[in-house]
Amino acid sequence: MSGLDEIPEDERVRIASDFIMAAPPGEFKEVVNDVRILLGDDRLLTRASSVFYDYATEQFTTVKVDGGDCLVTKVGSLDSAKRFVDPTTSKSFTYNFLKNEASEVEEVPRDTNVEGWREAVQSALKGYLDEVYPAHVSAVYANLADDMINLTICIEDHKYNPANFWNGKWKSKWEVSFPTAGGHSKVTGNMRVQVHYYEDGNVQLLTNKEVEESVQLSSPAEGAAHIVQFIKSSETAYQIAINENYHKMSDTTFKALRRNLPITQSLIDWHKLQSLKVGKDIMNR
Amino acid sequence: MNHGQQLDCALDLMRRLPPQDIEKNLSDLIDLVPDLCEDLLASVDQPLKIAKDKKSNKDYLLCDYNRDGDSYRSPWSNEYDPPIEDGSIPSDRIRKFEIEANFAFDLYREQYYEGGISSCYFWDLENGSGFAGAILIKKTGDSGNKLFKGSWDSIHVIEVQEKGAGRNAHYKLISTVMLWLHNSRAESGSFELGGSLSRQAEKDSAVSDMSSHIVNIGQMIEKMENNIRGILDTIYFGKTAEIMNKTRSLVDLKGRAKMDELNKQMAEALKQKQNQTPNKTAQ
Question: Mind telling me how many Å the CA of A78 is from chain B's nearest CA?
Fold first, then answer.
């Protein structure tokens, strides 16, 4: 099968991008390195490099900014797609995708039109995050457009343990838009979990769920409480459902695929199995 | 960048990319590095596909070991589909053995899997030192309401070095089991848990005739599958769940931190009390 025609460069760039985009959490560098060697042409890797932005923002990659953890997200990206803002500290930074480093940190003035709501949600959220996330990193973004306040909440928590061949991440994104005067509005959420175990194998959990609910948003404090309550109940219910799946699948689906032992409750007598074949041959004559 | 280095990277990549997309990823990988094609097809396990032998109306499994070009050999008819000239087939001795093995592993499959499909393919080793084979098993299942679906693929590759004028043999087994679980309950959204684990084993055994190989290989594979089944249980339903629950807790962490602090204070108080009465033994 050698002697296959080389595929066009565009295709090679597309394949390289697809591979990098599919890197499990915590393994971006390793996948980029593999792809680099397989491409065998750094010029093509440069062409594919816009995927670094897609990957980092999709994953809510965390980066240290002045000692604190911040998120890299689409909603937090500034014009150039190389600079991002952290709404908690109100700082912007340049992000180096390959090194996972922040630089050129600057203070950014807060938007007083939305800061009341933004801060209220951030404060209510922290109380909840501290309850259930061992190492959460989050960001509450807010902006005003056409008399509508747009809030986006990004949450992530990960555990990386490459020395033991596993990595895992939980992330969720919540959005709501409402008039500046407040009102009844729909909150939409997307929760996603990915776990990768790769000692002598490759096992992955891929799960995600979308939810939505209308909440009352009359004042920042009250609205924030409602939003966070919805996030809490959705995430808790989802995690419980995932654990239920594990129990059910272990008890039923897995057992139904292959038994522990034959119905005789003992290992097969392979010598006897042989004589069955001989018997069958005799019968077939 | 040499061939060996590229193959290492390709295999590393296949261990990291979601196994749920194995076929697409393998296809893209071969397109990207055509020189690695044969090596990749031989070393990357894929979920087993099923084909029907039109002569016997029996199913058989497809893998790289019964492939020649774009055709696959049926273990029942020993013929290629689509037909090809000079397709690679085993010697008479090995074909006879292959028929016996298929029969034996059919029975094995029935006892452990109560359904499913199995296929065995054997071939002579080029240096004449023995023979090798691939024993494949596939089983799928779902819950009555189709909300839970599962699929199991066993791929065992055995190498048999015949020694001592056929009275001894050295067996080397490399086994991969792929396990795919899928769930469509609304409460858990889209849920996929899948992939594979691999293990190896070696042993020496006495041999009286070709049938002894069936017994030796059968025992080895049975032991290996039972072992891997246990490991799959631990990794899939224990380890991955544990990792997931490490990223978010169902237990109130602040409440637990308070409890831990309280317990610590009580332990300190108890210790101080014991230090004040040194002649009394601790309860």
Answer: 29
Q: Is B84 exposed, middle or buried (0-12, 13-18, 19+ CB in 10 A)?
A: middle
Sheet of strand B190-206, all strands in order from the earlier edge strand to the far edge: A137-145, A148-161, A166-179, A183-197, A201-217, B190-206, B168-183, B148-163, B130-142, B117-124
Quick: pLDDT tens for B228-259: 999 999 999 999 999 999 999 998 888 888 88
Do the Cβ atoms of A182 and A223 come closer than 8 Å?
A: yes
Mean confidence (pLDDT) of chain A: 94
Interface touch B189/A238, C-beta < 8 Å: yes
Q: What is the model's pLDDT at position B278?
A: 62
The shortest C-alpha distance from A186 to chain B (Å) reads 19
What is the SS3 assignment for B119? strand
Query: Which residues in chain A have Cβ-Cβ distances shorter than 8 Å to B183?
Result: 245, 249
Q: Which tens digits make up the pLDDT trace of B110-133?
A: 999 999 999 999 999 999 899 999
Of the CA atoms within 13 Å of residue B216, those in its CB half-sphere come to 25
d(CA A76, CA A55): 14
Mean pLDDT calculated for residue range A114-123? 97
Contacts of B198 in chain A (CB under 8 A): 200-201
B-chain residues near A242 (CB < 8 A): 188, 191, 241, 244
Residues of A in contact with B219 (CB under 8 A): 267, 270
Interface test with B, best of A2, A28, A204, A210 (most B CBs within 10 A): A204
A112-to-A106, A115, A117, A148, A209 alpha-carbon distances in Å: 18, 5, 10, 14, 34
Total-model pTM: 0.92
pLDDT of residue A6: 84
Provide the pLDDT for residue A278: 58
Residue of B107, B219, B250 with shortest CB distance to A276: B107
